[in-house]
Hints:
By secondary structure, the chain is α+β, with helices and mostly antiparallel strands. The protein has one domain (17-219). It is built from four helices and seven strands. Strands 4-3-5-7-6 form a five-stranded antiparallel β-sheet. A two-stranded antiparallel ribbon has the order 1-2. The longest helix is centred in the N-terminal third of the chain and has 51 residues, at 14-64. The protein is globular and about 80 Å long. The chain starts with 13 loop residues before the first helix and ends with a strand. Residues 31-40 have low confidence and may be disordered.
Amino acid sequence: MLTGRRHQKRGFTLVETVVTVGIVAALAAVVYPTVVKQFDTADPTRAAEDLGSIATAIEAFGVNVRPQQPKDIEDLTNVIRTTLASGDSTALGTAYSTTDSANWRGPYLAVSVPASVLAVDTVINTGFSGAIPNHLELFNSAGTNGGTVELTANSANADYLAVQVLGLSGAAFNAINLLIDGASEKNATQRRQSGRFRCPGASPTDGAACAAAFYLASPLRH
């Protein structure tokens, strides 16, 4: 009478398991820092590209709807409406005309922004988890401590439309600033109070978080 052979399953030995775990750990030690570094490198690039795209969109809007400029990022993505009651207005607070609306050739920015979005709502999440709100600020670049936001729409002191970026750490601000303004800014005062990317405030230090940074996107047309 024939009997079938018994095939015994052989598992890993302790030595094989330890060697395998060691190899995986060694690979992780090499690969993980590289992956993290790539993500860290991507963050400032993403933020700089997002801000550059908004600036380009503002300029294209201004060419079509000249001499008007947008008050909100939403104006760059949806056809502008002609009544202030709708929430749309020019950068200087006046109503768009029917001619302005007809000249709109957008969308100028490749993001989806609901027409009902509020001024303070975040419309873009950029690098380093920075939040870009809908409203474009009227910015006085000659203001104290690196510039000031002008709250009056027809203020003669405002000279730029600025994009606000909220919630950056000190290191994140510096990384983005290096890409936008370059290495010529040698200290915290220059980095925070000059150039196109700023974090206004008294007694600036590199380590301090930047609650509100401003990118000077386009000269303001009065």
